[in-house]
Amino acid sequence: MSGNDPIGRPVRSPSGIAWLIGIGLTAGFLSGLFGVGGGILIVPAVVFLLGFGQRLAAGTSLAAIVPTSLVGVVSYAVNGTVDWVAAILLAIGAIGGAQLGSYLLSKLPKKALQWGFIGFLLVVVVSLFLIVPSRTAEIDLHVGSIIGLIVLGFLTGVLSGLLGIGGGVVVVPMLILLFGASDLIAKGTSLLMMVPTAISGTIGNVRRGNVDLTGAAIIGIAACTTTALGAIVASVVPPFVGNLLFAAFLVVIAIRMVFQALKRP
Prior knowledge:
This protein has 265 residues and is mostly helical. It has one domain. It is built from ten helices and no strands. The protein is globular. The model has no long low-confidence stretch (mean pLDDT 85). It is a multi-pass membrane protein. One of its GO terms (cellular component) is plasma membrane. InterPro entries: TM_pro_TauE-like (IPR002781), TSUP/Inactive_protease-like (IPR051598).
């Protein structure tokens, strides 16, 4: 563990750099495997292992997600499993929703939001056992689905602003369950949606000094080396097995959020 300066910015050390690389390697693999940004792992890891302040951890994680998501998008796009139009619609909604979520953060009771989201995750976990996506399924774009994608992006952005969660945790299962996407298209589209959202958030965080750019670069570069491997594994495992793995991932997230919700303010 590294030492810290007064605002929670770690003083770099060989062991700290090694931890950053390890975090990046793990986050990159999970990003490619599940179509998530990896922030759900990066934020608690840099807080507990390296002593980052909470805001600095969130900002650094978001910056690291940019190159990770780009590599993930390329990995899925090579196999034609990215819906570019759907990703743009999701991103349009998410950017606006994140602004509202940030505003509501100081207005709404966070505990109630956390428990509500935990309940949502558990419903999704059960649903993933009931619906097995076809690898040939695509998102059917029409007026209703276009509006639905923008609304989904908006709600995802609100949750991101309120709870600091990555959009993929919501977008991937919803694209499968509500829009009939294959698991691979859902993951590839989710990663593409994150790119403009993460860039927008990172610009704001840099202005506020909430990003450790060196740490983000180390994590991001390390993550880029394993993201493609995660995407390859995702394409090899059968859809039902992919659902099981994603359900287990969501259960881990839900358990972590339960511990957060039970903590005293």
